[in-house]
Amino acid sequence: MDRIMRVVAVLSLTAVAGAGLSACAGGDEGSGGTAAPETAVMSTTTTTPPGSSATVPGPAGDEVRVPGAVAERWAELGGVEGELGAATGPAEDVDGGSISGFDRGALVLTPSGRAFLVQGEILTAYLEAGGPGGELGFPTADEATTDGGWISTFDGGVITYLDGVAEVELN
């Protein structure tokens, strides 16, 4: 398993263990009046060095290489069992960033190193408009809900999905 995935796993395990110790330290029952030692709260957010890569599960259980920030974000979104599922192939480099496809969407890595979620009909419209290499460029935020649908903002415009219709608006 790649170093980043091990760090995320260790931090997650540490958080779970810390929560268990905190729960056990609440009273005298079963501890002879001795409380468990306090544990430090650790952040599960890690900073991935620029240019680093990691592997995530892909088609037929094969490992797929993606940028480290993408693997980190994919794990935050629940990994294979989460919002995106398994990777569909390796990341595609585009204009200083990349796009990584998954079973149920994509993570687009901006040149500044931020990974944004794009999915569903907005992803379809984005890819038809050229994706990160097209006029829309890179996402500036994750998709968000709006009255009647979804909206996603990009360097060069906006895609809305309202009442079953995707619409691309360039700046």
UniProtKB/TrEMBL annotation:
Output the InterPro entries linked to this UniProt entry.
LGFP (IPR013207)
- Position of the signal peptide: 1-25
Recorded hits in PROSITE patterns, A to Z, give: PROKAR_LIPOPROTEIN
This protein is called LGFP repeat-containing protein
Which stretches of sequence are listed as region Disordered?
26-62
For this UniProt record, give its keywords in alphabetical order, as a comma-separated list: Signal
Which species? Dietzia aurantiaca
Chain intervals with Low complexity compositional bias: 39-61
Instruction: Return the Pfam families for the record.
Output: LGFP
